[in-house]
Design a protein that fits this description.
Length: about 70
């Protein structure tokens, strides 16, 4: 469970976490810190209320795919 605000909570099954190998040179930490995370969240099939879904899908944000999937890379 991920609590965004007191009123907005996302269930674990709504979130898809993937550990990946990080891109880029890395410098001195290349052999120590070379992992990254992808978080994928399907806005349309989520438990969010319809008004919030529409607001999110209307955003012109490069992290939201054409299919309505929010992708965050860290």
């Amino acid at each position: 469970m991920l609590q965004i605000t007191p009123d907005i909570v996302l269930q674990d099954e709504e979130l898809d976490w993937q550990a990946i190998r990080a891109q880029g040179a890395g410098g001195q930490n290349v052999n120590k810190v070379s992992s990254a995370l992808h978080l994928r969240f399907n806005i349309a099939t989520s438990s969010l209320d319809d008004a919030l879904k529409q607001r999110l899908l209307a955003l012109r944000d490069q992290r939201i795919t054409a299919d309505g999937i929010l992708v965050i890379k860290a």
